[in-house]
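anyone seen this seq b4? input:
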Amino acid sequence: MKRRSSLAILAAGAMLALSACGGGGDSEAKSDSGVPLVEDGKLTVCSDIPYEPFEFVDGGENVGFDMDLAQATAEDLKVELNVITTAFEAIQSGSALDTAQCDIALSGMSITDDRKTKMDFSEPYLKDNLGLMVTKKSGIKGIDDVKGQKVGVQQATTGETYAKDHGATPVQFEDSGLMTQAIQTGQVDSVIGNISIISTAVESDDKLEFVEEYDTGEVLGAGVKKGNKELLDAFASTMKRLYEDGGYDKSVDKWFGDVADAARIPEADRS
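predicted toks r here
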């Protein structure tokens, strides 16, 4: 689940001020399929880059799981993909969509009741439950093994609450990067965090492993401006195609590695 500091909020405010100066209401542009777009011939996507493995720059190109979904949607609409790096506060508040900065937000965004009041969401395209990551030499096999031990968590998250509830002593870190550094440098032997965060660390460091998933029900989705049913239906159509032709599973396996099975939407829940 994405969280950002007050710096992100300031950045978002500055961006909105610029947007207000430049205008930008509803656009008349449409794709050939009749889906309304903010710019003719382009699917404009707001994304908070970098946020690996969902969206980041590699070799000068935007890549990642969300970028795969964005590219597939643009191809189905027969338009060009245009990705705009946007502060996450402007995305999750709905302001980037409301001011026509973009058509759709794909940014590792959790679906929450509060955010549902600000935008319309797609069906979930990924699970982001909590998981336990440990050093291989720790011998930790599950949550029972960390009772009474120090466990790294990102402060003010569900991971911190889960650690406390299961008898562990949370060691707080301001962001996920510092939390990952802590287990890599031996400050802690285990971490409880969202699977999306754990996946990158496990893939990049063979001294770490993912040992257990906790079903907290957190899921991720794409956001559109309220009432934009045409684009929401188009995204759903693309997801249906990717589910059926194997593109979805291939992308999940590519970007989430060892935690792919914990992250993917089960076949029974795909619509």
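The chain is about 35% helix and 20% strand. The radius of gyration is 19 Å. kinda curious what u guys think
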